[in-house]
Structures are given as C-alpha cells and as structure tokens.
Specification:
The chain is an alpha/beta fold. Helices cover 41% and strands 13% of the residues. It contains ten helices and seven strands. The chain has a seven-stranded mixed beta sheet, with helices on both faces. Helix 3 crosses helix 4 (97-111).
C-alpha cells in the first residue's frame, strides 16, 4: 500500500466515486463528528460533484488513535492527506469546528501556491475575530453530555448508552480542547467566494458574528440564515444541499467552460 493510499484510507472517504465530476467538495465534520455525517450530502451531489468526507482520528474506525488537540496541526494533517486529490478544483464545506478547519485548509492552499477553493462554505461558526469564553473542555463528562443533548446534534440513543459514551468521550474532549484554544495565526486574505450558513437560534453563533467572515476574503460573501439551532443543517438538510448544489453548479459551469 502506498503512502498516498494509506492517507486516503485514514483521512478521506469517498462514499460515491464521481470520476467525471469537474470538481470535488471536501466536507469537514463538527467537534465529535465523523465522516458519515456527510454521507447524505455525498449521495445527493453525486455524480455532479465528488464529495470527500474527512475522518478525524479518535472515532469510528479510527477509535484507537488519539485525537489531535490543535486545529492547525489537524489542518496540516488533512492538507497532507488531500494532496492526491488536488488534480481537480476543490470546494470546502465545514460545520462548526469543521468551518475553522475549512478556512485553515484554504489558507494552506494559498500558502502552497495552489488556487483558492472555488467556494468556501462556512457553517455554524462565528468569525475568528468574535471571541467567546468557552469551557467545554474543562467540564465533567456529565457537563459535556448535557451540552451535547441541548445542541441536538448527536443521536440520543448514543448519548444514553454508557458503553458508547466511554468510546466517544475522549474524541469529543480532544476536539473541544482544539476548538477552545484555537487562535487564527494568519492575516492572509483569501480571494474566493464565501457562503456563510447559520441557524437563527444557534446559542453559539449570532448572525452578526457569522456575517463577519466577510472580513477574511476579498471575494463576495453571502450570509444564509436558516430556522434552527446549532445543527440547523440536519433539520434543513434538503435546503442546505440545494444551496450547495446551486452554488457549485455555477462554479461547475465556469470550470467546464474555462
């Protein structure tokens, strides 16, 4: 097995191969999330767009691996794993923690002399300039569990199963440590268009905080506010997928024509 295929097997999941697609969409999960969260997105967009869902260490088939408690380090590892897929234009979609990683990946693409993503989708996360004091990483297991239940982003049956909780709690803790200690280290501006998505009742992101992502690109930025909380994209999946498909459809036409 080659080094590239090893990285692909570990980090990058292609649930629906689309060899004739002119672009790929890299999807980055939230804290505690896994690549399977984006299986429905992959199914919906294939074969027009090939979806690459990222699998972080410490969950599902990577359960035995320790989580990475630094988002810049995690972004470095993902960027390295994506190298075999840079032969087509990339768009990036990240939710919550994944939105930070999507932005960090876009910065690494620019730093490496690669084109910016064709579009950056940043969901469920305020702009880096909007700092909040957060302490999830310091809470007891019960405190984290209560927060997860309040956010409605994790299957209740999993949260009520002690054996499952024992398996997933280490990765959740490491993800929260990574998110809550993160600080943007670059003042580089991107030039790609950015679509910002947020829920109108998200306790972690006010629309005004999400809208400030416009300060991080010279490209056009749009803010789409959906009914719902932090995991609005699960409740509004059809609308979110339709938005993504529409924006990438515009870009696909450009790529094909160009």
């Amino acid at each position: 097995m080659t080094q590239a295929s090893t990285r692909e097997d570990l980090w990058v999941r292609r649930y629906h191969s689309a060899p004739d697609s002119p672009m790929r969409l890299v999807c980055l999960p939230h804290a505690g999330g896994s690549s399977t969260f984006y299986f429905p997105v992959s199914k919906a967009l294939s074969p027009a767009v090939e979806v690459l869902a990222i699998q972080y260490p410490g969950r599902q088939d990577r359960l035995a691996e320790p989580g990475i408690e630094s988002l810049p380090e995690l972004a470095d590892r993902i960027f390295d794993a994506l190298q075999p897929f840079m032969d087509r234009p990339l768009a990036l979609f990240g939710h919550s923690m994944g939105a930070i990683l999507a932005h960090e990946l876009a910065l690494r693409m620019r730093s490496a002399g690669l084109p910016d993503p064709v579009r950056l989708f940043l969901s469920g996360r305020r702009a880096p300039s909007c700092r909040r004091e957060e302490d999830m990483r310091l809470r007891s297991d019960a405190g984290i569990l209560n927060e997860l239940k309040a956010l409605h982003g994790t299957d209740e049956s999993m949260l009520n199963d002690p054996d499952v909780l024992d398996m997933i709690m280490p990765s959740i803790r490491s993800d929260y440590r990574a998110v809550e200690t993160y600080q943007l280290a670059s003042d580089t501006l991107l030039s790609c268009p950015v679509t910002v998505l947020t829920g109108d009742s998200d306790p972690r992101v006010a629309p005004s905080e999400a809208e400030l992502w416009r300060e991080y690109t010279t490209g056009e930025t749009e803010l789409r506010v959906f009914p719902g909380g932090h995991f609005f994209l699960a409740d509004r999946a059809a609308e979110v997928v339709s938005l993504v498909a529409g924006r990438l459809g515009e870009k696909t036409a450009t790529v094909v024509a160009g």
